[in-house]
Specification:
This protein is of the alpha/beta class. It folds into two domains: 116 residues, HAD superfamily/HAD-like (Rossmann fold); 105 residues, Rossmann fold, CATH 3.40.50. It contains nine helices and 15 strands. The protein has a six-stranded parallel β-sheet, with helices on both faces. The protein has a five-stranded parallel β-sheet with strand order 7-6-8-9-12, with helices on both faces. The mean pLDDT is 92.
Amino acid sequence: MALKALLIDIDGTLVFRNEAIAGANWALQEAAQAGLAVRLLTNISAKLPHHIAAGLQACGIDVAEDNIQTAAMACSAYIRRQPDASCHLLVPDAMDSLFENIRRDDARPDFVVIGDVAERFDYDLLNGVFRMLRDGAQLVVPHRNLYWFDGAGPPRLDAGAFILGLEAAAGQTAVVTGKPSAVFFQAALDALGVCASEALVVGDDLLTDIAGARASGLASVLVHTGKGQTPRTPGTAAPDAQLQSIAGLMPYLHGAGLLAR
């Protein structure tokens, strides 16, 4: 079946340390010219789609906010599907706005939602969440990324490092609404009106992009930018192909005969 859509990661695949990866914008333009639908997927939860789109445009990458799907959006949608749910939010301000009109409970909530709050993580905050989970709250998170790249500096801890500790202490597994969740990838397929056999995931992260693609029955390409040079550990999902960067994506698709003639 001919390829109809691309599900493309943003950070590490299109941009890295606030700069566009060489050839990224041209790859998106070539994909559009080839008639491929594109959905940009990100586990970023501290920014709304229009902020992400503006940042990409400032880097020279032409995207529309309607083509961006965030893990935070999926997280909000998950809570809204639960009848009369209450939640305790530990999320950045931008993500907070996605939970308007959802009942808040900071004592005994049904759900605890944790996003990227960076320096706000401290003992008292985490211990308070731990007690809510022990009292029966379900932990819901946009993602469990362990680290991320900020500007030109070294990697920084991401929310997943703290979420893993809370899961172990409370004896529960968080509901993950972003990558590598199959729910997240299915939402992208539904938005584009294609099935898994008609789409390809392109990303730099073996644990989210590639593992999520494999679990959802999607083919995948790993790019060696961003996290893409991290050595693969035993048991990690393998991509169907590997490229130095997204600049080589369209030549690869043509060479592999994946495009409609």
